[in-house]
Amino acid sequence: MELSKRLMTVASGVTKGNRLADIGTDHGYIPIYLVQEGICPSAIAMDVNQGPLDRAESHIREYGLADKIGTRLSNGLERLDPSEADSIVIAGMGGALMTDILTKGIHVVNAGKELILQPQSEIFKVRHFLHENGYAIVEEQIVKEEGKYYFIIKALPGEQHYGEEYLYEYGEILLREKSPLMLEYLEREMTKYHKIMESLNDNDSQASQVRRQEMKSCILKLEKAYHYEM
User: Fold this and answer.
1) Which residues pair with residue 91 across a beta bridge?
2) How far apart are CA 90 and CA 35, in angstroms?
3) CA–CA separation, 34 and 7 (whole Å)
4) Residue 136 host element (H or E)
5) Residue 32: half-sphere exposure toward Cβ, Cα within 13 Å
6) How many CA atoms lie within 13 A of 8 on its CB side?
7) Rg of the chain's alpha carbons, rounded to an integer?
8) pLDDT, tens digit, 9 for 90 and up, residues 59-96
9) Closest CA to 23 of 75, 99, 81
10) Which helix (H) or strand (E) holds 141?
């Protein structure tokens, strides 16, 4: 099983020997890869829709792993027992939906050993959720695939809090490491917000004034992020 760069980065966060629950599994690629490679002894591929689950089941049978990977129709963590998984993976959905799933299944979350999360949007909500619910972010990665940037978070039980909001927006670990790709992402965001500011400069309406203030706030956070020092 060959994974995309994004999915491979998600899979790389799972600790060897852990039982996996993949929430919103879609094609079932992550559990197939992890079991096939001997990283996870077993996995449960879960999805809220029957169509993706049928595709996952087909792929699992194709790779001869039906005895090690179960499938389950479930709204988020609803049908996962707290004793069934050590690693919970949720990838490819918005941050608001992800935190909703985690909140509703908090009794399952608290029984696990680690969370591997790849939110598509509103990542700050996910980081806030983790800190507010007894999880520490121990690893973050950024990957670029087909022109899009993706962020992957690994969290373990523990106490952790960031002092400023921009660290929740952009990730303290990523800012500390200053990878070329992260700096590229910040520069792109800075350019985007400056262009919006320029487009608003000739408009004196109240709505434009409010929008300009929003852009100034975004740019200030980006500047802090770009020049972050511990």
Assistant:
1) 118
2) 17
3) 11
4) strand 135-145
5) 20
6) 8
7) 19
8) 999 999 999 999 999 999 999 999 999 999 999 999 99
9) 75
10) strand 135-145
